[in-house]
């Protein structure tokens, strides 16, 4: 049973125990111009003590310092917020309001990269030298190899490539020994090898990370547990979307002769994702498997039901406060039914394709031809990044983009999430097999022109309030297999009509 | 040494020899509403006798007939043109003017799919039942298994899935025994397996295709050789693009410590591709390997030089009339240095990623942020399809999009191939690492905001004549990390200025 421990319990290597210093000392290893690669994925396993201390250190001693910060995925605002003023370059994913403001203002350079590609690019040297790796661990083994905590992300690549290493031993985290499956990607001109994963549960690496101990310049203690993620219960719209997703899967089961075996599920994060996970639990599917990025609240009930659930693979666990309590109760069961892998493996195109993964993600908006905007509001300002959505959509057996058909803005307008065109495209029509809203679902799986597909998406997925306008656009677009309106005057008029429709959206619509 | 043979030489199985019928009889097996899956890839290995005969049959006896036609990639106009009026649905790639007209007019439904995905979708049943497979072969072995000809494409999936099979034995084709590496993709709920290819030369299947002989309803003879593809010598612009590509590769060799080993090259088809292949031949790189879709004219000189060349893998060979003669002279050498695979393998994300393939393709246009339009003129009318460009760009170690900076239209205007935004996106900024024109190259490999990347693409890749306009767009776009102009009036004015600049492009520019 995991418990809070002392630092001495957790550091079994005397050489590294001797390197324990106060965090105020450790932060001095990071200076202006450095590139940091750190642990952390969806707010799990981040260096929760080191980064805020580094921000404080800069504020006191080096307010002009600017660094490059590379992570697995998002950090919590408590960790990234204070450091944001000192970040000059950032990748490959963030959800910090402080960083976002600086990115939009052009003060922080953010590069949005497929997560699987980012981890490999890091190994290839595309991002240059890594000056310092900062990685949260739950235990240091006698030979100095480490056991990570609640996420893997890019921790392994960071420890492998960095010139200096700082380990943050989290004594409040449980000992995660047995959760991880650690493998380093091959780098040209070395020969790449097939990844021998043919089932979700297959482990192909080690449960610990090996690296060059001589590079460790400091070890610090952290007693801060992972920050909880918000959990919002599914509303009626979420539930209707979830029902449509499961209806689609049941149709596929018949049509493509799956038998009882549902292909492994990749699920995004958020209300709709949670609603789908709930709906799947109540579906006829048994022995469900998740091959996904994040193991989250909705999946915990599966762990308690061996008929319903077989196995899960992800790169992080991420819970609400309540979910975390349940996870701790189920810790040993989870270790037997869940594996945490580096994000280049959890998001590997090779494995996603081989396992016939069913991919699902929520976008900002889709268009009538099936192109997807996952990242940029108004096409100009990034929200978080595309994360692993492209890794999964592109290589999935079935790729499902699900969204409410409308979204209410703060200014009172209600906009359509099904648009004639989207102003930023992260996923093309070629990668999307099914569009789902609370209204229904439309397929892009058969031999059909984009124009016919558009009629279908409008009729089945768009909100009835916006359907006439979308059809009007299609008429205006004219000839071609995938027509776009090019008459700027007509287009202008269309946008005016649309804006009016957004204002006139019926209350409770 | 391959020679033209008699039908009896080529059909060693008595049961199938007994099924030889005149093509006028064989075509009767195809009726209105049928789905045909056939051999053929970039005009190689297509059923050159059957399809025109089928078109003639429909014209005489069933002018209302409409079929679905699925291929590997493009057919020659001699083959597809006459049949086009009878095709209702078409996928996944075509370059027929007759089909294109019908597609734009909405009379033919065309679905544009990544080639690797298309072959697998076919096996998964996503395109429904295949009524008839028509496959060109060079030989039928004693046990009835077949040796294909100059391409593989979807021939294997067609023979595996079809209800009825028609074999077209091409006695004018050489006996291609030993060229092919045949494997069928796994289908859920069967377990997928790792593809054991770790070098370009690794063969993992059989040199012949096995299938259910009872499904063969007819065997026909063909004496028509593959139609030659046009070959245009590289002009000055092509050569400057090629030089910039090779300069980029030489820079990478230094920066990423490749040593002498160039990662395998994927090359598109056309002048620029041929210029690059030529420039590589004159570069310091040795033991070059191609992992690509089509083995073409420019690669033949490599086959004669064992210091320069190691091995090639593709799904088709495709030559000009002159190239074909040279290929025939080098036939035995080619068999030892070239393998033809099904297109799901030649374009497999798993293998492209593992082998660190360097992908290169020519688009219609790119935008300043690195988004690529490969398929739609004016965003509305498809040209050919995206083919394997997405398979390669997305999974490559390095992805290079190369294009002349300008293109002269028939109406006399010269347009910029580097645009503020493209009206159809087939490949997103996330998948492109380098943009190359005859002006220079710009990278998308480091941590940099799209806006900074745009300044770089404008300065290094756009034609000097269009640079001020592109910079003006960027200024007009305003704030955000990847800003887009949304003021319709300003945008309108920009397009007017652009149109004028296209008209004023200096002669000999």
Structure notes:
The first copy, chain A, is α/β, with parallel strands linked by helices and 509 residues long. Chain A folds into two domains: 7-222, Glutaconate Coenzyme A-transferase (3-Layer(aba) Sandwich); 357-384 and 393-509, Acetyl-CoA hydrolase/transferase C-terminal domain (Glutaconate Coenzyme A-transferase), CATH 3.40.1080. In chain A, helix 7 packs parallel to helix 8 (155-161) and helix 9 (236-255) packs across helix 10. The mean pLDDT of chain A is 96. Chains A and B meet through strand 3, strand 4, helix 7, helix 15 and strand 19 of A and strand 3, strand 4, helix 7, helix 15 and strand 19 of B.
What is the architecture of the largest domain in chain A at the second tier of CATH? 3-Layer(aba) Sandwich
Most extensive interface, residues per chain? A-B, 89 and 89 residues
Number of E-state strands of chain A: 25
Proportion of helical residues of chain A: 25-40%
CATH topology of the largest domain in chain A: Glutaconate Coenzyme A-transferase
- CATH homologous superfamily annotation of the largest domain in chain A: Glutaconate Coenzyme A-transferase
Average pLDDT, all residues of chain A? 96
Largest beta-sheet characterization of chain A? 8 strands, mixed
What Rg of chain A is obtained from the alpha carbons, in whole angstroms? 24 Å
Shape of chain A: globular
Spans of chain A of at least 5 consecutive residues whose pLDDT stays below 50 are none
- Helices and strands of chain A: which structural class? alpha/beta
Number of domains of chain A: 2
CATH class of the largest domain in chain A: Alpha Beta
Q: What oligomeric arrangement do these chains adopt?
A: homodimer
Q: Which strand-content bin applies to the residues of chain A?
A: 15-25%
Distance between the termini of chain A: 50 Å
Number of helical elements of chain A:
19
């Amino acid at each position: 049973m995991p418990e809070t421990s002392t630092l001495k319990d957790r550091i079994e290597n005397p050489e590294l125990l001797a390197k324990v210093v106060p965090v105020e000392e450790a932060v001095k290893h990071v200076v202006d111009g450095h590139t940091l690669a750190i642990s952390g994925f969806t707010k799990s396993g981040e260096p929760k003590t080191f980064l805020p201390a580094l921000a404080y250190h800069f504020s006191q001693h080096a307010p002009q310092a600017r660094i490059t910060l590379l992570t697995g995925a998002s950090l919590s605002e408590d960790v990234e917020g204070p450091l944001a003023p000192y970040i000059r370059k950032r990748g490959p994913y963030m959800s910090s309001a402080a960083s976002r403001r600086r990115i939009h203002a052009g003060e922080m350079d953010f590069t949005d990269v497929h997560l699987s590609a980012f981890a490999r690019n890091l190994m290839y040297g595309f991002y240059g030298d890594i000056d310092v790796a900062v990685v949260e661990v739950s235990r240091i083994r006698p030979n100095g190899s480490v056991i990570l905590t609640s996420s893997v992300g890019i921790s392994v690549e960071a420890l492998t490539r960095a010139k200096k290493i700082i380990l943050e031993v989290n004594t409040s985290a449980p000992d995660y020994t047995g959760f991880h499956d650690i493998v380093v990607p091959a780098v040209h001109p070395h020969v790449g090898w097939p990844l021998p994963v043919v089932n979700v549960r297959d482990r192909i690496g080690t449960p610990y990370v090996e690296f060059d101990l001589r590079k460790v310049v400091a070890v610090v203690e952290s007693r801060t547990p992972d920050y909880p993620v918000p959990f919002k219960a599914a509303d009626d719209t979420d539930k209707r979307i979830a029902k449509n997703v499961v209806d689609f899967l049941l149709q596929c089961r018949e049509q493509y002769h799956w038998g009882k075996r549902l292909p492994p599920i990749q699920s995004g994060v958020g209300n709709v994702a949670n609603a789908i996970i709930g709906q799947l639990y109540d579906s006829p599917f048994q022995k469900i498997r998740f091959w996904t990025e994040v193991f989250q609240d909705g999946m915990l009930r599966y762990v308690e039901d061996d008929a319903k659930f077989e196995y899960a693979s992800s790169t992080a666990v991420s819970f609400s406060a309540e979910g975390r309590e349940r996870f701790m109760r189920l810790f040993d069961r989870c270790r037997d039914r869940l594996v945490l892998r580096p994000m280049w493996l959890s998001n590997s195109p090779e494995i996603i394709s081989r396992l016939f993964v069913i991919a699902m993600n929520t976008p900002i908006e889709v268009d009538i031809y099936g192109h997807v905007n996952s990242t940029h509001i108004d096409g100009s300002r990034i929200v978080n990044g595309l994360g692993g959505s492209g890794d999964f959509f592109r290589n999935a057996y079935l790729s499902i983009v699900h969204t409410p058909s409308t979204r209410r803005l703060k200014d009172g307008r209600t906009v359509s999430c099904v648009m004639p065109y989207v102003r930023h495209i992260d996923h093309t029509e070629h990668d999307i097999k099914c569009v789902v809203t609370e209204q229904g679902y439309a397929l892009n799986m058969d031999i059909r022109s984009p124009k016919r597909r558009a009629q279908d998406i409008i009729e089945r997925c768009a909100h009835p309030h916006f359907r006439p306008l979308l059809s009007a656009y299609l008429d205006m677009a004219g000839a071609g297999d995938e027509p776009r309106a090019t008459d700027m005057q007509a287009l202008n008029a269309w946008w005016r009509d649309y804006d009016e429709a957004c204002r006139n959206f019926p209350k409770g619509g």
